[in-house]
Amino acid sequence: MKRTFWISAILCLIAAGVELSAGENPFVGTWKLNPEKSKFTGNTISYEQLSSGEWKSTAAGMSYTFRMDGKEHQGLFDRKVTWNQANERTWESTVQAGGKTLVAQRFEISPDDKTMKVTSRGTTPSGEKFEDVSTYSRQSGSTGLAGKWKSDKVQISSPTVVEFKPHGSDGISVMLPAYKASVDLSFDGADTTATGPTIPAGMTFSAKKLDERTFEFTEKHDGKPIYKMTFKVSEDGKTITETGKPAGVDEPFVAVYDRQDKTTHSTE
After folding, report:
1. pLDDT digits (tens, 9 = 90+) for 193-213
2. Which helix (H) or strand (E) holds 70?
3. Any bridge partners for residue 186, and if so which?
4. CATH of domain 9-40+159-259
5. 44-155: what CATH class?
6. Which one of 17, 80, 117, 268 has the fewest beta carbons within 10 angstroms of its own beta carbon?
């Protein structure tokens, strides 16, 4: 799974809809992603070489084009990307924003052309280094990078920590310390912008209550939904489970977060 998508999606862990005091709100606290309990496999990514000589990358229902020349090209949102082929079975890319590299990736194809290993390295705005490794199996195509690939295994080196604090009488503030990102939400479903050096321009977030422990969350870019998901806190208040998928794409993922603070907010 690409860290560039995941960074954006992870900001979406935003509690909603339960009008409780700070002491009763089951979402308030510090939470850490538990990769072993989560499921990030099953997503697909496709690479296609066009007649123009350009390449097309498609993942999570979104696409961009580039050239394999090591130069900057327009990627998704306000990102810039570079691509080059290192050798017969290895490709390298970077994703940049504001002149800074967010992630550097290395794509390695197995000798039998059936699997692809993607290593994503970078440093968060807080200085935390990460190195994530995803393994994909070929779904189409025969050799090289071109074809459709499906993730079979994802290893995350530095699980994200999320902090929730009360915001007014009917909202919550969400902080991602590693990314210096935050957003203040009301529970009226209105689109809200977030702050942080890695948040793409034009990105907004909204949330609606489904029940006492569950809310629906939508992430949009320039007014168009790109991710939809639900979040549910467990009855014992010890975990939050995120279940969702990109808009218009049937590739669900499940992310489970464990409470880190000592206080347990039971919802029974």
Report:
1. 999 999 999 999 988 878 888
2. none
3. 171
4. 2.40.128.20
5. mainly beta
6. 268
